[in-house]
Amino acid sequence: MDLLAAHGGETTLRYGAWHGDWAPWNMANLADALLVWDWERFATGVPLGFDAVHHELQKRIQSSGDARGAVEATVRRADELLAPFGVAPVARETTALLYLVDLAVRYLTDRQAEAGARLGVLGTWLLPVLIRRVEEL
To answer: How far apart are CA 93 and CA 75, in angstroms?
Structure first.
């Protein structure tokens, strides 16, 4: 986190709200409406675009089963995912990496590893990619 903060220290981020678990299984697209549920992770004061990054990561994990590869592919798509939210090009990768930090904190706080969750052990999928990408900044 210190390396990410040092790198992004001069980067200006824009903040807003996010659903917190914007994933295909938390919504239904009807002919005339979009239904969205599971708002318990809704928060304000988060960098714009977190929902887009979360949705992409969850979709990739679900479709491929390769969580580590999904993290890598999602970060690689940061430009494309975050441009529609007006995130400055210089801030896009940092925003995606900050999202991964937030997700890691969530998994640790929820004690996912202790609960036996399939992706509970962050060192097998999320942390290796996050650490490597931050060190490459």
So the answer is: 7
Beta partners for residue 82, in sequence order: none
- Residue-wise pLDDT for 23-41, tens only, equals 999 999 999 999 999 999 9
| C-beta of residue 62 within 8 angstroms of C-beta of residue 24 | yes
Query: Per the domain annotation, does 66 fall within a domain?
Result: yes
Number of domains in the chain: 1
Crossing angle of helices 67-76 and 50-64, rounded to 10°: 140
Query: Could you tell me if 106 and 34 are in contact, meaning their C-beta atoms sit under 8 angstroms apart?
Result: no
Under a CB-based contact definition with an 8 Å cutoff, are residues 122 and 130 in contact?
A: no
Our CA angle for 27, 119, 19, nearest 5°, is 30
